Structure formats: structure tokens, C-alpha cells
Amino acid sequence: MxxxxxxxxxxxxxxxxxxxxxxxxxPCKPDFGSPPGFEVSIINKGLGKEWGLQSVPPSIGTRxxxxxxxxxxxxxxxxHLPNGKYSIKPIGFPNLRVAATAGNKLDTVATDPNxxxxxxxxxxxxxxxxxxxxxxRGCTIESVANSFLCVEADTSxxxxxxxxxPCSGGLNQKFNFGGA
Length: 180
Hints:
The chain is mainly beta and 180 residues long. The chain has a single domain (24-179), classed as Trefoil (Trefoil (Acidic Fibroblast Growth Factor, subunit A)). It is 10% helix and 43% strand. Strands 1, 2, 3, 4, 5, 6, 9, 10, 11, 12 and 13 form an 11-stranded antiparallel beta sheet that branches. Strand 11 (149-153) and strand 12 form a beta hairpin. The protein is globular, with a radius of gyration of 19 Å. The termini are far apart. The relative contact order is 0.21. Residues 1-19 form the signal peptide. Keywords: Signal.
């Protein structure tokens, strides 16, 4: 009787582990491929909003806003740097980066490798391989300059700001990354 219970337990464990998909589950750091990074949409699924640029083409000081989500228009390149940090840039503008600025708003700034406001820590609940569709889920984007602040999408119904707020783990601080 004890042997059959042990066999049943082992078979249950094997069934569970073989059912886990190849993507990494649990706290993980996403991989956006080798330089130059991967073109993504950054989506807050809970609010149905996606990061966007207040004006195109962007220039220094262009505000990052949240607008209704669409996976068909990637607007940013995310790059995982050798030091473990991440940079986020508007597509086609390698001399600009997304940074926390005055009032903890997110704006584009001139690239400066010594400015920690331009770097991010990203941790996800599920990490996959960069591809079309959503591949990283439940991600928190934390400021390197101030590790107690996380990116948060405003709950305004139409176009709203994306800013830094105290890290709470709330739905408006959880983002998915997807490729167009």
C-alpha cells in the first residue's frame, strides 16, 4: 500500500512538471535579445493601456503617455544591458532614452550612460522568448535611481500619463511586453 502511494505521488509530480511550458514562470528577468534589443509594446493589461509617445517624432522632453492598447504598433526598444539593468528607447531614435524626470513623470531625454534615471530594473511573473504577441507577463518596471519607485499607468479613461509611484505591486504597476 505504501509503495502504490509513493508511485502515485511520483507520477503526479512528473505530470505537473511536464505540463509546465518552456517559458519561465515565477520571478524572472526578461531577455530582450542581444543588442540592439527588441521592439515592443509595453501594455498594462489591467487598465487596457499601452505606453506611447505624446508627440511623434519624439524629441528631448517628449512625455510618455498611456493610450488604449494595441499590439500592432510597437513604439519602444528594450535592451537588457550587461550590468543587469535595462534601457528603454523610442524606436528609430537611438540618441533618446525613457527616463524619470521632474515630478516623477516619464519623458524622453538625451542618452547619458551615467544617468541612473535612464535605467530600469524589470522583474516579471512569466518570461518568454521575444516574439510576436505577448511574451513577458506581469512585469514590474522599477527605477534604478530610486528603487522604491515603480512605473505606474494612470487610471484616466483616455490618454493619461505614465509616472513613478511608490512600488505597491498593484495592477496599474504590472506590464506585459509584446512584439508587433
